Sequence to fold (448 residues):
Amino acid sequence: MSSHGLSYQRALPIIILTFVDVLGLTIVVPLLHLYASVYNATPLQVGLVATAFPLAQLIGVPMMGALSDRYGRKPLLLISQIATCISFLMLAAATSLEMVILSRVVDGIFGANFATAQAAMTDLTDEKTRAQGLGLTGAAFGVGFILGPAIALFALEFTDSLAAPALTAALYSLISIFLTVFIFRETLPASHRKGGKPDLMPVLFNAIHMLRRPQINPLLLLMFLQQIAFFAFESLLGLFMLTRLGFLGTGSALVFIYIGFILIYVQGRLIGRWSRRYGDRKVMIMALGLLAAGLLLVGLTPEQPHPLYVRPRAAAELQELMPSSTEAIIGDIETPLPDDSRRGFGGLGWFLVALIPVGLGAGMLRPALNSLMTKRVHPRETGAVLGVSASLSSLANAIAPLAGGWAFQMYGPSAPFLAGGMLLALLFALSQRLVRPAERDVEASAVT
Fold:
């Protein structure tokens, strides 16, 4: 790495790999509830499909991250990408719900692509450019997150088979394998790797080991709790937009693209600059405040459908839609459609403004937290701590739709967003005491 900043020539292959991997994943994930419905799954079975991947990652990501500290990033990237490709092929060939679930488990245990790519990025960065590098991988994730569902819908336009999106995802995964083999250069030299034979049992309990360390456990706790709040927002946003603004598929997709562009801008342009100027700790605290304010504002969005909304037409279209995995898990949700006599721009305007602090906070928070973690462990433990961080995020992703959906059903559409905003506001207030500046954090923030 250049002593004057991040080496984009070395970082570019990691960014491309992240984009391709996320593209493959997001082509399939929005359609998983359709796979379950094809096999007449019960609500519990649909829930199992939805949670199989994040639950499997609880084991897989720490294991793969720690092994990458021992054997290097490139071989573990290849293993995870090959496993992901195999899982997509299994999904395309699935003839039962059990095969669908098994394909998600295989990808969850062995497909730690993003966490390993983050570890590789930390190898190429120093303390001043760490958040910038992780932000760039986050921006690549955001671009893939936007394009993946669009490609899935495009693939389904030309065939009635759910195998088409899965095969498309497998193709992108195969491309990532070739990129790793021929373009990616190992970022962790042998001299910087952990010695000795790997013992998989301690690897499986890395989370317990990291959570016992006072410099790390507040950051891991913050990562877990903020992900519960944010993923509940993300998983229920479409349903919320329907009940408040009258948005169905196209409108919801445009809103997700709007959020995606905010995330990309923050992670590609702002996070590195602000991290160098203010330090990762201050950026993390600021991000918690912004995200808290944004979720509270979203929850207070007035019920006013957009000007083109027609209630009978929306009701007819809604009958043709299958329930999302979140709705199926918690049972049938009665979706009250807004009254079309109150159409206007007020609700939409409020909502789009509220999403700005949400996008700013979400774009900064995870890179800042992960950057802080990597600075508070030995360089040889980078992969391990990022693996634990990703696993806790996966656990949060398994919990959030259930908790948020229950709150939505019991207390109304605003409940999960207001609850998430209040949780984040509490974390914002506590974080200044929970996360004390380390010596290196103080030095970094002093350099402006």
Summary: The longest helix spans residues 249-278. The domain at 8-182+200-446 is CATH 1.20.1250.20 (Growth Hormone; Chain: A;). Residues 292 and 425 are 5 Å apart (CA to CA). Confidence is low (pLDDT under 50) at residues 320-334, 440-448.
